[in-house]
Amino acid sequence: MTQDIATLPAAGLPATLVSPARKVFIKTYGCQMNVYDSGRMADALAADGYSSTDDIQDADLVLLNTCHIREKAVDKVYSALGRLRDMKKVREGEGREMMIGVAGCVAQAEGEEILRRAPDVDVVIGPQTYHRLPQALRRARAGERVVDTDYAVEDKFDHLPDAPKVEGRARNVTAFLTVQEGCDKFCTFCVVPYTRGSEVSRSLAQVVGEAEKLVKTGVREITLLGQNVNAWHGKGAGGETLGLGDLLGRLSEIDGLARIRYTTSHPRDMDARLIAAHRDMAKVMPYLHLPVQSGSDRILKAMNRRHTAAEYIALVERIRAARPDIAMSGDFIVGFPGETDADFEATMALVETVRYAQAYSFKYSTRAGTPGADLPDQVDEAVKTARLAQLQDLLLKQQHEFAEACVGKTIDLLLEKPGRMPGQLIGRSPWLQSVNVDAKTSQIGDIIKVRITATGPNSLFAEVAES
Ligand code: SAH
Ligand code: SF4
Ligand code: F3S
Prior knowledge:
disordered N terminus, 21 strands, binds S-adenosyl-L-homocysteine, binds FE3-S4 cluster, 5-stranded mixed barrel, binds iron/sulfur cluster, alpha/beta, globular
């Protein structure tokens, strides 16, 4: 009988000295908060003896960190689980373990249902209980099929370990930092209030502490994350209530931190202090993702967005008055129930007025359990497709116009990673564009002056500017 190579002790080492380390492969779907959470899950697993791998064939544990926002996102997860089932069968034939875990918003929303539809899944774990992941895996290994989707009373952030210490170079020049989770706004199309629970802010001390640690590892730019990041609130030393603008001020004081961004904001939570931060704080980057969803007041009301198109436009004007060069980004939904041609034209008109540098647009996807699912007048799929194409044409045109307007400008570029060509690096402009420039690998993490020379399909080109 042949023995599987993976179970043989490494050559020359007594079996007791061979590391029993298991390997985890994590696939992340959905938003940046899931990207952040995947990192934290990897840290929690590292503290439990797992190392991360990019090679699924090498993994003892495959973890899908899932998204529930649109039907397509959920379909992707179930088709991935189908493929994993086949892979697990092959593994079992070889006598090797392969556990399957489902985390994230599909885990939270569907819970037990996942075990019914995908019987090979070992662990289903919701976003609020990631600190209990190692424990859940142990229970699964003992033969249980685990579903842990409580809203844990203890705060997961208090229990997740720090990233393991890295010697020498930073892991990354840029990092995400979740400061707020959940949502109480209940837009009628959206599952987030159900999958992430009600709004919770992390404390000022916790956020500042984590930011300082990131900067010590070499991080130069931090993006603060939250489903409603500008609903963040905390307490100051004197017990006073603080908002996101105050948090940006406190983070600005960290030496070595060069840039701060935040996403995603809700128009109703853009207070005067936060707008002023864009005027007063050099480290706060001139880029703002401020979803509006629709330009029709009737549809905005049906969506429960609680603002009108005119209020949104006035808000953008106040923000531009504070920071004239700010790049606006947004999210749009076409084909919300009851949307007429006139409503859609109002969205197009709003886009013409605001002028976006970047945007994301989607066809409305009916989500069971949300109020939108029960509304009459669901819009025909073909109509949604046509409207989406028309809207995306306009948004893309504006994106190109914004990029073209950058040509000739001298800007600060944060060098992030190697480019496609040897001798080239890719950096980020203040407006979040990828920029290619000739530079040495040793310059990664530096901010240099460059002149934008040309635009490409997804990035810009620049030359180093003589100072
Ligand atoms: N908290 C953010 C959005 C989080 S979800 C906000 O309030 O803006 C990200 C985006 O997904 C939303 O802005 C919306 O454009 C889109 N989205 C959410 N639910 C959707 C649905 N049911 N169908 C289509 N798009 C949806
Ligand atoms: Fe969803 Fe609305 Fe909350 Fe954003 S504000 S997460 S769209 S319910
Ligand atoms: Fe998706 Fe959950 Fe983020 S539903 S968009 S992964 S909060």
